[in-house]
Structures are given as C-alpha cells and as structure tokens.
C-alpha cells in the first residue's frame, strides 16, 4: 500500500546473521503460546558476531517450565533467523510506570538460568 509501518524502536532492532528483526515479531508469536503470559525479546552478544535472540518469558500461573516445547513452537511458527537462541523464564517482566517493558534491565541481566536451543537439538528450517 506504499506506507512504512514502524513496529519497534530502532535501538531495539536485533541484527542477527545479516538479518534485522523487530523483537515485536518474535514476542507476538511467543505470546500466542498457551503457556505464556508475556514475553520480551532482546538481542544479546553472539560469539559469532552481531547478536543472538534471547526471549524472557513470564509463564501463566501454575504452568511448569518447558523450554523445549517453546523452542519447538518457535521453530514451527517463525522464520529460522527469528527463533530465539536462548529462553529464560522470569517471575515478572520489569516495567516502567507506564507499564512498558524495561528492555535495558533485561539486556544487562546476569545470573538467570537460561536455556540454549542447541541443548535441545532443535533443527531450524532454512528457506
């Protein structure tokens, strides 16, 4: 239709293996999963250069952690370059007074228990 639509802030765009991706696109898929209450996706440094995708996931009350199921779901629903490399489950997403996710706090977060997609043998489909 000839218009540009901005879905995220430029500073939040993740550069992964030559692709630019908006965290919103990954979050919208994760948030549709039946066990997910809310998610926030950030770029984290990659040993290969650029960034890897990391998802912070707040589960619905009483739902057990199942990282493999979330990785498999993402691999089915997302293009290969958008599938998170890491998932970390958190009790609550840190928010501003306006209820926006504080991505900067999550980018710098250390000490959490993160799960790596490769540990579960998740195969990504390439075009």
From TrEMBL:
Gene3D superfamilies linked to this entry: 3.30.300.30
Species for this entry: mine drainage metagenome
The protein, known as: AMP-dependent synthetase and ligase domain protein
Family statement drawn from the similarity comment of this UniProt entry: Belongs to the ATP-dependent AMP-binding enzyme family.
UniProt keyword list: Ligase
Keyword Ligase: yes
Coiled-coil annotated residue ranges, if any: none
The AMP-binding enzyme C-terminal domain, residue ranges: 26-100
Any one GO MF annotation of this record: ligase activity
């Amino acid at each position: 239709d000839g218009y540009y639509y901005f879905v995220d802030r430029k500073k939040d765009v993740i550069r992964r293996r030559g692709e630019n991706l908006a965290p919103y696109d990954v979050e919208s898929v994760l948030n549709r999963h039946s066990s997910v209450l809310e998610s926030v996706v950030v770029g984290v440094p990659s040993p290969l250069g650029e960034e890897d995708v990391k998802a912070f996931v707040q589960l619905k009350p009483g739902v057990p952690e199942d990282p493999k199921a979330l990785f498999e779901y993402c691999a089915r629903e997302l293009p290969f370059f958008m599938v998170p490399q890491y998932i970390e489950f958190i009790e609550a997403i840190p928010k501003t007074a306006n209820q926006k996710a504080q991505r900067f706090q999550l980018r710098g977060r250390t000490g959490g228990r993160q799960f790596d997609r490769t540990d579960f043998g998740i195969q990504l489909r390439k075009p």
